[in-house]
Design goal:
The protein has one domain. The protein has 6 helices and no strands. The protein is globular and about 40 Å long. The N and C termini lie far apart (35 Å). The N terminus is likely disordered.
Length: 149
């Protein structure tokens, strides 16, 4: 099996083994992805979603430790898209990312967030799944960030 490479032929590092989302989590993510379409049509509304998600993430940083860096990258990517600073991200990728963020913000997803310890397990799985699904586009964004200096 060959090494994964980005669009420019640069080798990509793999992630540790992560739990895949369950069928229920994937079904909820698909609903949230459809809801994300509405956010893509309204950049101001999308900006508000990112702010709410960042506040929730800050309050729950400890339980999100394994996906923290990836989650922050998703927030930065969407924020850069909202401000039209970064526009090279495919529409489909934005749908996946915003679907994951809507899922994360929703306190009553597959495992409600108020359940101690387990409430964020599904959120972390969905975030990891989406990151892995759009890895090349996220890496392109990170390359763009680095090129800005």
């Amino acid at each position: 099996m060959g090494k994964k490479r980005d669009r420019n032929g640069k080798e990509r590092k793999g992630r540790g083994k992560q739990r895949a989302p369950t069928a229920k989590e994937r079904k909820q993510l698909e609903k949230d992805r459809k809801m994300a379409t509405g956010f893509l049509r309204d950049r101001e509304k999308t900006g508000q979603l990112i702010e709410a998600a960042m506040q929730k993430a800050d309050r729950n940083r400890g339980v999100l430790e394994k996906v923290w860096n990836d989650l922050m990258t998703l927030f930065r990517l969407v924020r850069a898209w909202v401000t039209r600073e970064y526009t090279e991200v495919p529409w489909k990728t934005l749908l996946w990312i915003l679907g994951a963020i809507v899922y994360f913000v929703n306190p009553f997803d597959v495992i409600p967030d108020f359940i101690p310890v387990f409430g964020y397990v599904d959120d972390a799985a969905v975030i990891a799944f989406v990151i892995n699904s759009v890895r090349n586009d996220v890496e392109d964004f990170k390359d763009w960030e680095q090129s800005k200096g």
